Each structure stands twice: as C-alpha cells, then as structure tokens.
Amino acid sequence: MPEPRPVAGSAPEGQQPRPTASGPGRVLVAVYAVFALAATSRAAFQLATDFSRAPLAYLLSTFSAVVYIVATVALASRGSRARRVALTACSVELAGVLVIGTASLLAPQDFPKATVWSGYGSGYGFVPLVLPVIGLWWLRRTARTPREAAANGAARGSRRG
Amino acid sequence: MHTGLVAAVVTVALLAAVSGVVVALRNRAPGDVTLVLAALGALLSVVQSVAAFVDLAQGRRPPETATYIGYLIGIVVVLPLAIVWALAERTRWSGLVVAVGGLTVAIMTARLVMLSRGASA
C-alpha cells in the first residue's frame, strides 16, 4: 500500500501538522479499528435478528459502531478535513460513553442489553472511556507543527487541537 | 467451539502479541518471527470460525446466536488487517499494532467460548 507523501515544495516542511496515523498514532488507529469491529460485530446481527428485544440498546450499539468507524477512518487519513472529522467523532464518543455510562448506572432497567458504552465501557476494560481522551490528546498534540512543538511551552493552549 | 483449536488460536495470538511488544521494546520493526506468528494466528482463527459455522449448521446454536455469528466473522479480519497496517509503516510501533491484533483475537476467542457456553456477552 503506497503511503501518500506530501508533494515536495507544496508547503514547507515543519509547517504542516503531523499526520495522525504516523508513529504512535498507528497504534491508536489500530485500537480504534478494534472497537469499530467489536461494536459493528455486536450491532449488525443484533439489529438483523433480535431488534425487537432491546431496540434502545441495539440502536446505541449501532450508533457507537458508526462513531468508531468514522473516528478510525478519519484518524487514519491525512488533511485538515479528516482532522476536523476525527475531532468531532472523538468528542461525540467521549460524550457518548459518559452519557450512556451514567444512564446505564442510573436506569439499568432501560438497558437490558449491554452496549459498548454501558457502565463506562466496563465490559471492555474501560478502554472505551480512555480511548476518546487519548484520541483528543493525540489530535491536539499532532495539530502543532514540528516547529511549534520544538518552540514548545509558550504556544501551549493557544491553538485549538 | 473446539477446545484444541481454541487453545491453538489463543496461544499463537498471544505469542504474536508478546513478540510484537518485544520488538517494540527493542526499538525495531517487526521481523519474520512476529509476522509469521501473526499470519499463523490469522489462519488458525479462520479454521476456528469455519469449524464453529459447521457446528452452527448442524443445529448447535448458543442463546446469543446473533452476537456469536458477528464475532465469528469479525475475528477473522483482525490479524490480516493488523499485518497490513503494521507493514504499511514499519517502525517500532508496527510491533505494537501486531500486539493489539493478537490480544484482540485472544479476547474475542475467549468471548466466543463464553457465548458458545450460553453466557451473555
């Protein structure tokens, strides 16, 4: 698979944000892909066969599957548009795991079937809770250009991730 | 689920994961040992899923058949994708990518065993 490289001379090296799918980012994308797969595996056949048994839980499973797929593809892609999509997906994911996690604890009777986000992702070693935080941190970190990262310190917090 | 196959899949997948972590710690890209273990794990998980589908076709269905089938299909793409993703940019992080894949296959196999015994996922 040929890796797309920035065209020489299109923009000075050191002013482009670093690609999110490079270096440690490759491991992050891999973990996101695992959750995209896990959530999709859960959702697809549940929806197809048992939808009436627990429609809310299965719809949430499907929603989380979509969020994970979008986040995986966006983090694996280059460009500012992919970065914005990834930022949105990770934010939705964090909101989702917090809201569903809290709701599943407060009203367990409404969540007869577990989703990836039930109990803050306790069924998945709480990785669903940690993953969006790491994703957002990584987006913020790679958003800084290498030159800024070298200058460090002063610019921290002044740039949106 | 076939006990022998399950043991083989989990063992090879975990060996691939450990091997991936070791090469990452040594700051190397994964070599033949890691990649062959990952490929073998991928192959074994295909055999495992095919065997499970044969059992399903013969009428032995766990209570959560839908989730079970989803996992049986999902598990076979994990290690092949991990290998492709690891090879596309060969750095120390590739080893950790293989490790994530191996660990995932081991965990998914454990879930499959629970599902086949009637536990809820």
Describe this protein with a few key phrases.
heterodimer; A: 161 residues; mainly alpha; disordered C terminus; B: 121 residues; 4 helices; 81% helix; 0% strand; elongated
SSE layout:
The complex is a heterodimer of chains A (161) and B (121).
Chain A: H1 24-50, H2 55-76, H3 80-106, H4 127-143, H5 146-151
Helix pairs in contact in A: 1-2, 1-4, 2-3, 3-4
Chain B: H1 3-25, H2 32-57, H3 65-88, H4 92-116
Helix pairs in contact in B: 1-2, 1-4, 2-3, 2-4, 3-4
Short description:
By secondary structure, chain A is an all-alpha fold. Chain A is built from five helices and no strands.
Detailed description of the structure:
The complex is a heterodimer of chains A (161) and B (121). By secondary structure, chain A is an all-alpha fold. Chain A has one domain (24-145). In chain A, 61% of the residues lie in helices and 0% in strands. The longest helix of chain A has 27 residues, at 24-50. Mean pLDDT of chain A is 82; it is low at 6-11 and 154-161. Chain B has one domain (3-116). Chain B has 4 helices and no strands. Chain B has helices at 3-25, 32-57, 65-88, 92-116. The longest helix of chain B has 26 residues, at 32-57. The two termini of chain B are 16 Å apart.
Please tally the helical runs of chain B, counting DSSP H or I stretches of 4 or more residues: 4
Overall average residue pLDDT of chain A = 82
| pLDDT < 50 runs, ≥5 residues of chain A | 6-11, 154-161
What Rg of chain B, in angstroms, do the CA atoms define? Answer: 15 Å
- Structural class of the helices, strands and pairings of chain A? mainly alpha
| Major β-sheet profile of chain B | none
**Quaternary:** heterodimer
Give the overall shape of chain B, derived from the CA principal axes: elongated
Tell me the number of structural domains of chain A.
Answer: 1
- What's the order of the H and E elements of chain A? HHHHH
Pattern of helices and strands of chain B: HHHH
For the secondary structure, the number of strands of chain A is 0
